[in-house]
Amino acid sequence: MEGFLPLIWVIFWYALSTPFIIYGVWKLKKVMSEHPESKPMLAVAGAFAFVLSSLKIPSVTGSSSHPTGTGFGAIMFGPAITSVMSAIVLLYQALLLAHGGITTLGANIFSMGIVGPFVAYFVYNALRSIAGFNIAVFTAATLGDLATYVTTSFQLALAFPAPVGGVMRSFIGFSGIFALTQVPLAIIEGLVTMLLFKYLLELKPDVFRIFHIEDKATSTEP
Amino acid sequence: MISSTIDTIAHTNRLRHVDTRLKIIFALATLIITVASTSPIPPFLAFITATGLILFAAKIPFRTYFLLLLTPLFFGLVSLLLMSLFFGYSQSPLYSFEIISHTFVIQEEGANMGLLVASRTIAASACLFFLALTTPMTELFSGLKWLRIPDVVIELAMIIYRYIFVFIEEAQLMLLASRMRGEGDFRAKIEVFSMLASTLFLRSIYQGDKLFIAMNSRCYEGETNSLCYQEKSSRIGIRPLFSILIFEFAFAYVTIMTQNMTLI
């Protein structure tokens, strides 16, 4: 929520997110100039993340629970480009839907655009050859979503440590409240992302060629 | 859909033709000072100013603004309640009450912190609404360019913006169609939703491909030049800029003077 974080944390999270975003912009520039035909895909993934993350349930602690839609982007385009995409989506959330805000943008980019996609990406790559494509996608999207909320709870706890027990006490409180709504949502997001990949691979495998997903998927598919 | 409401208002309000850069400077500076304040008084002033501009200068209907404000109001009140109950030391109880043999104590520090956070949230949201309600997205793109955001990001942002509406339109049609065929249990719902999402994806990509071909045939080379109300090279009006700066300095001064004040 806009204005929830004190100035010092606003600056801190912006500063921490900036290097990732700069790297993401560099990567994006490369992909968009080498494969201009990937632009519609990037944009649809962004719009998808926007629509998914606008389905929100207010949570009582200055933030809200919603699917993030970033697992898809992370697996498809890699985490760096997804960070830039999330930054754009979060800005639209603030300006078009009045969710989130400008001052909390840095913190939100860090949790939803950096930690979530990076976790999803690494989980996907670790599990792909062991557990198969579908399970890897499901686990990656679910854990990526959960990682986002663990980070958000931590950010809130750092900004508002409990007078008795400090940051850890606050963290347990904030994440406990989030867990109620977020665990089921994360599992649903995992399922939806998995099925989305499944149908997309069946119906239009050539879309994936640009990002080299196809060979990975088909080679591990039984 | 609330996004289309904000979008429509942004195109039709009375402040639409004010220089985007001025609106951005005002909104950002007020936001930063509000977030930096350590007493609830500056946020209150920021809220009054932003609300005044929204309702009387931009002539945005009260109902729309009030509905938007409900979210930060709700958040603010809940934070106030939770913080006054759980933040603070036991030496300074303001008030205590019992619910089912459990004593709840409202602490002074907690109540002050809750008031501060609630007022900041509501005031900062009002500043954000000012920008969102008075400035169409296309104008904001030129604002982003002025803020030196890289062209690739702006380009992607523009295409995503276009796609959000393609997506919503297609989704409404398809959801309606699937509802007419009846709804199943939870499992079926998830499956239907993913099928919808993937078909939606494909349809949007086809649309996008077409858009891309159309743009290419019109000499599109990765940069979208559109006409903005303000020309890129034009100077910011000195007088409005000056009055905004005077306001922000006065506001910052008030913030510094009131930094140790508390309401309770």
Short description:
The complex is a heterodimer of chains A (222) and B (264). With 222 residues, chain A is an all-alpha fold.
Element-level helix/strand string of chain B? HHHHEEHHHHH
Lateral arrangement of strands in the main beta sheet of chain A = 1-2
Helix share, percent of chain A: over 70%
- Count the strands of chain A? 2
Number of helices of chain B: 9
Secondary structural class of chain B: mainly alpha
Low-confidence stretches of chain A: 214-222
Number of domains of chain A: 1
End-to-end Cα distance of chain A, whole Å, is 45 Å
Approximately how much helix is present in the residues of chain B? over 70%
Q: Let me know the number of strands of chain B.
A: 2
What does this 3D model show about the protein?
The complex is a heterodimer of chains A (222) and B (264). Chain A has helices at 7-34, 39-53, 70-77, 79-97, 105-131, 133-159, 166-203, 213-220; strands at residues 57-58, 64-65. With 222 residues, chain A is mainly alpha-helical. Chain A has a single domain, classed as Arp2/3 complex 21 kDa subunit ARPC3, CATH 1.10.1760.20. Chain A has a two-stranded antiparallel sheet with strand order 1-2. In chain A, helix 3 (70-77) packs across helix 5 (105-131), helix 3 (70-77) crosses helix 6 and helix 6 runs antiparallel to helix 7. The longest helix of chain A has 38 residues, at 166-203. Chain A is globular. The termini of chain A are far apart. Chain B folds into two domains: 1-135 and 235-264, no CATH class; 147-232. Chain B is mainly alpha-helical. A two-stranded antiparallel ribbon of chain B has the order 1-2. In chain B, helix 2 runs parallel beside helix 9 (238-257), helix 3 runs antiparallel to helix 9 (238-257) and helix 7 packs across helix 8. Chain B is 71% helix and 5% strand. Chain B contains nine helices and two strands. Chain B starts with a helix and ends in a 7-residue tail after the last helix. Chains A and B meet through helix 1, helix 2, helix 4 and helix 7 of A and helix 1, helix 2, helix 4, helix 5 and helix 7 of B.
